[in-house]
Amino acid sequence: MDMQKIGNFLTELRKNKNLTQEELGDQIGVTNKTISRWENGNYLPPVEVLQILSKFYNISINELLSGERLDCEHYKENAEEYIVVDLIKKRKEAKKHIIISFIVAIITTIAGLSIVLLSALLDTFIWLKIVSIAFSIIIIILGIGVCCVLTLDAGVYECPNCGEKFVPSMKDFIAGAHTLTKRKLKCPKCQKKYFCKKKLS
Q1: Hey, where are the domains in the chain?
Q2: Which CATH code is given to the segment(s) 3-70?
Q3: What is the DSSP string of 100-137?
Q4: What is the per-residue pLDDT across 114-144, written as a single tens digit (0 to 9) for each?
């Protein structure tokens, strides 16, 4: 994605409408400084603004992101390119979620076990030891909860029987026996339980 090309195209489209940056800003609800940043290629307009600009200039979002008007052949090529870029971005985010999930699991487990060990070693009141153990259990449960949310959000599971890709409910996810890469889940299509493999987005 060529930000400078997009910026130049936005400048050209505005000038074709005989508008100053301030006049355009007034019409779409942003400041002239924001328009200037887009046209200088420093920033890309957010999705909701791209939709507004698309209607305002009567062109597609694909053309806005390409920085030029496109014929049918180039339109299709660019659309596919943006889909691929989006898929790569989602895959990277999914990997990041898995890594964060793993780090959170290690930290919360170490923290929880450390508190239990510390309360066992210290010569203190029994009620304080009970509170410490309860607190460590809460930390571990919260850590597991965060891990589950991050892992569930990072992609889909694939049924080995029918190939169906699906996102399980949190209840099924937590209840399912698992290995490092697979989890026993009920497929919504074939309605049978299998060890389904995790597929990143």
Answers
A1: 3-70, 85-153, 156-199
A2: 1.10.260.40
A3: HHHHHHHHHHHHHHHHHHHHHHS---HHHHHHHHHHHH
A4: 888 887 787 778 888 888 888 888 888 888 8
